[in-house]
Each structure stands twice: as C-alpha cells, then as structure tokens.
Amino acid sequence: MITSEQLKRIVNSNIRKRELPVNKLTVKTFEDGLRIWNDVDILNFFENKAMKWQPKHDVAIFIPCSAWKPYFYSMSHKNGYLKVLISYIDVIDLFVVSEPMAIVPYCYSDEYPVKNYDYNPNQFFIGKLSNPLVRQALNIFIERLSRWISKYHKQYSKRILILPKSWHLKVFLKVLLRSNISSEDYHILSLCGRSFQSTETLTKQIKLCF
Questions:
Q1: Which residues of the chain form beta strands (DSSP E)?
Q2: For residues 97 and 163, is the Cβ–Cβ distance under 8 A?
Q3: Count of structural domains, the chain
C-alpha cells in the first residue's frame, strides 16, 4: 500500500521505475480482453478490496489508468494528474478507472495485480465495439463500475472526474446513466491534450472545486 507521503516524494523526484506485466494479465487478443475480467486475481481484487473500500475523506477524484505501471511512475500520472492533485492528496480519496480492474483506490496501485496488468483500450476497446467479445467486456466493465458507484456515490459530498473524453469519461457516463445518478452530481474537468500538457488548465479547474 502506497501512502500519500510516498506519493509526494515520488512526484517531487526524478525517479521512474517500471513493473513488467505478468503473462496471464497481458491482453494480446480480443479473447484475452474478455477472459481477463474473470481472472481469479482480478475478481479477488474487485470483490475484496475495491468493493470493501472504506472512505477516508469527503472528496472522491477519478482519473484514468496508464500503460506504465505502477501508475504513479507513468508520465501521465507523475507529471500530469498527480502533479496537479498532490497538494490535495491528504484531503481526497483518489481512484483510477481501469480495464480490467474497474476501479482502483490509489493506495493499492503498488500492489499485485494492479501493478502487473497490460490492457490497451486503444487496441482492444476504442472503435472496436462491433466485435461481440469487446461488447461483452464493456458490459462487464460497466456492470462492475456501476456496482461500485451505486455503493459509494452517496458516501462522498464532492465528486470530480478527470477522465479523457475519448474513452473513460464515456464509460463513466454510461455507468451513471445505468445507476440512475445524474452527471450533474460530478464536477467534470476538461483536459487540453494529454495530462502532462494540461497541468496549468487542470490546476485552475481543480481550485474551483474546493
């Protein structure tokens, strides 16, 4: 489990490390992209960690996953999302929206299986929904995220989405619709390019939420 103090040190350092994905959690085909959702370790994490999360603060912020694991060493997180959010890290609950994890409380991002999967949505999701296997995987994604949101939505007084419009935001909005929750209950922040290119814009937007 990674702490907020460790995240602060990482964001302020020049260190980057990478964990290699394990073979069974590496999606190389559309069949893998469906199978991985029911992998025993993925399911165990969702049921016993994500679904048993104990909120620590009143503010929930949701950001996307990254190809580089652990997330906090990726350029998009270290130089983007975390750089913007680090001054708030002690007063927020930070979550990652991810395939195939569904939802990851950030404190678990240095643990297996979160740091050891490889699932590229550009290759196996975005623009591929005509494939029945992809639609099945998307349905699982939406169902699990809906379960989590339905349980935890009311436990937060403030909810902030920092998700790319091209994919994760679309999925999240589908989840809210399915869960009969208004998107107006969420502050939706806009990215101007990639996260590490949007820090100034995001910093201004996040200030308005507090």
A1: 59-64, 93-98, 102-105, 158-161, 187-188
A2: yes
A3: 1
State residue 5 phi and psi, 5-degree precision: -65, -40
How many Cα atoms are found within 13 Å in the side-chain-facing hemisphere of 39?
26
Task: Split the chain (210 residues) into runs of 10 and give each run's mean pLDDT.
Answer: 96 93 97 98 98 98 96 95 96 97 98 97 94 97 97 97 93 95 94 81 92
| Full domain range(s) for residue 8 | 4-208
Single-letter residue type at 28: K
- How high is the pLDDT of residue 192? 74
| The amino acid at 146 | S
Q: What distance in Å separates the CA atoms of residue 61 and residue 85, rounded to the nearest whole number?
A: 9
Rounded Cα–Cα distance for residues 192 and 132 (Å): 33
Q: What's 133's domain CATH number?
A: 3.40.50.10630
In Å, how far are 34, 111, 162, 178 from 37, measured between CA atoms?
6, 18, 24, 20
Q: What is the pTM of this model?
A: 0.96
